[in-house]
């Protein structure tokens, strides 16, 4: 019987209700799974056996027939194998490399539908979401605070002149817009190399807040798209030009499924005062 294997480039963010989101770091696409599919995935990762996943899932969902679960599990496994998020090989052999590097667009319902109820289908991703397609729009000039633990000191950046866009903020935004067009694995390697080999010191909360404020002010005047992915990457770039290190984070939230990117220092996430908190987002990738 073939053994199932999860490739190293697949990152997982499990939900609170059995659902899960998978990130294919080759392409930057995310795949959201409902609780039935999430449980199958967890068991396949643990046991590497298709039938074990079916048996455990049938035990957790006794109202469903095992034949229905096996049918849906087969569809899920086929979809994940097609996308390279699972590989299969005979017992005792090493798995073959995943087929190709080109992402396969997933099908399903649109974003915002959320996970399906247990017992309907174990279908895989509701849809493949390119991280660069985050629907958040860039906010206007705003003060920035450190969203750390309750009671922690908030770092505020001084408001920049309303009619003057910071040149460095605009430059870093343009650099980020170029970087975001790179293949996702290349982008991650650039960010990680810069953090580990170029940056010499960790950025303070105040420095990161000032960088984010400068980028957001530039983004407010940029005529094209500049959402959280571009803005956070631009702030990371601005700090890197000063050889200051921060962490780039990408997270997911459910009901409806949505994605967000931000930067963090040792004190915690850095966010604008007019942004909502990120408590609802589960980290799926950090650099």
TrEMBL record:
What the entry lists under InterPro entries is as follows:
McjB-like, McjB_C, PQQD
Q: Where is the Microcin J25-processing protein McjB C-terminal domain?
A: 180-286
Location of region: Disordered: 88-138
This chain belongs to the protein called: Microcin J25-processing protein McjB C-terminal domain-containing protein
